[in-house]
Amino acid sequence: MTDTFSFNVNSDDLQKRSDHIKMGIHQAPARSLLYATGQVSNPEDMKKPFIAICNSYVEIIPGHVHLRELADVAKQAIRDAGGIPFEFNTIGVDDGIAMGHLGMRYSLPSRELIADSAETVITAHWFDGVFFLPNCDKITPGMIMASLRCNVPSVFVSGGPMKAGLDPQEKATTLSSMFEAVGAFKSGLMTEEEFLETEQNACPTCGSCAGMFTANSMNTLMEVMGIALPFNGTALAISDERRDLIRDGAKQLMRMVKENVKPRDLITKEALDDAMALDMAMGGSTNTVLHVLSIAHEAGIDYDQADINEIAKKLPYLSKIAPSSIWAMEDVHNAGGVPAIINELIRMSDVLHPDRMTVTGKTLRENVADHEIINDEIIRKFDVNPYSKQGGLSILYGNLAPKGSVIKAGGVDPSIKYFTGEAIVFNSEQEAVEAIDSGQIHAGHVLIIRYEGPKGGPGMPEILGPTSAIAGMGLGKEVALVTDGRFSGASRGISVGHVSSEAADDGPIALVENGDKITIDLVNRTMHLHVDDTELAERHEHLKPFVPKMRNGWMARYQALVTSANTGGVLKGADELFPS
């Protein structure tokens, strides 16, 4: 019993964190409670590392319904490697189900709750390591944020993407196909029978949605950041390979605990640059910009979204995935996966930082050295036939977005380099949807959807319904949409989001009036409102003060604390709340 009670706070012993709750005579009550959990059986178990499994099993999210089973695989692998696993769960919001109504206002804010709750459990119980099991939407970035706050050895293994579905013409479908089918059906371009068949087959299995939407964007970016294993972003949720990743991840985590390799050792400025570089090569979701900025904030890294344009200028767009093409994540996997894309970028450019260490115990270069492009139609060669010579995302600046805005340039028809149109203004997404449904939107319009930013929404809801309806109506090249809200990774077309400053902060987007001319310049990465400064100043004088929309619940607090999209939409910290 003597060894059980000994504890040296300065020890480098691998279980020194959890010794805070299980070693010493004063922790006898805690040990009694630990025995009561059933996870610890005897004093020898008390000497082993305590490993948290931060799960996100939620039955209403198809990308998470299988995570309970995957957690059991992880638990066994951790026990086999000499650890004691303890599972806990976070909340989650399914963006596709929460789309277009009050629920969407809770999606981005849930990222902060997920980070807060994971931080709470990990810190309160002094875990030695954490096995994170995310998959969809805001859960992945929320967990990454928590890992950086706690800075405990951690590994991430996502739940994996679902298989693509098939439409009535036997063409591959993803969730974006269903959203666009709504517009097609309303416009008479699809029969009711075709519509219902698409509805029932667009999402055929568990897993994150099959295209390069936010979930899969973040799950692939974790590979290049070095916090997840190769093929984390593309191995199907239902595959044996996904289970093998879980087992391998558990083994690597136990090594990292022993070697004390922590998230802040891996997530550096260079790692974030490489994440955005991969995002450019794959045309990822615009939401990745928000999340990379929030991750940088938690890591204490000064990261300006203006830097993203510099990365985009240096790298081509190599793999165009749904909703921007017919290819799904499983196609990318079979074509060589993310490792093949990273290897191509390393060989053909000097943009990446390939000698960074990763969770495998090897460098990024070593992780991908043996992985080649198998199908160069799905993953194109750097110097042969890239989709474009510059990356798939752009940050646009100008008098309409002085602090920046984001467009998925890879989701815009390649023939469009410039677009000038006439503003038609809506103060909410719902107003815009009603206008689209009633036939008020025509070629040459620039829809302005404002007061949907982090504060104004509140929660910066995704504006997927309007963009999908426009695409489904066949107006994807003739109509643009500009918003201080954000977009789903499933959005495409001339869609500019994250306009900063937002309308609720008296940003210029609040001053736009019907009929104003707006130019979106993808070549020079600018967005200009053709109204002179004198007129804008006069409009500002008559601008009514913003009135918060939610007065009850935690979202009321969120409105008061959230910052702008150009800083990641994180909450104000001590420096802002308690200035010295």
UniProtKB/TrEMBL annotation:
Mg(2+) binds at D95, D137, K138, E462. It holds the Pfam family ILVD_EDD_N. PROSITE patterns: ILVD_EDD_1, ILVD_EDD_2. Binds 1 [2Fe-2S] cluster per subunit. This cluster acts as a Lewis acid cofactor. Residues 48-367 form the Dihydroxy-acid/6-phosphogluconate dehydratase N-terminal domain. It comes from the Bacteria. InterPro entries: Dihydro-acid_dehy_C, DihydroxyA_deHydtase, DiOHA_6PGluconate_deHydtase_CS, ILV_EDD_C, ILV_EDD_N, IlvD/EDD_N. GO terms for molecular function: 2 iron, 2 sulfur cluster binding; dihydroxy-acid dehydratase activity; magnesium ion binding. Its cofactor is [2Fe-2S] cluster; Mg(2+). The active site is at S488 (proton acceptor). One of its GO terms (biological process) is isoleucine biosynthetic process. The keyword Calcium does not apply. The keyword Aminoacyl-tRNA synthetase does not apply. Its EC number is 4.2.1.9. This is Dihydroxy-acid dehydratase. It comes from Leuconostoc pseudomesenteroides. The lineage of its organism: Bacteria, Bacillati, Bacillota, Bacilli, Lactobacillales. The gene is ilvD.
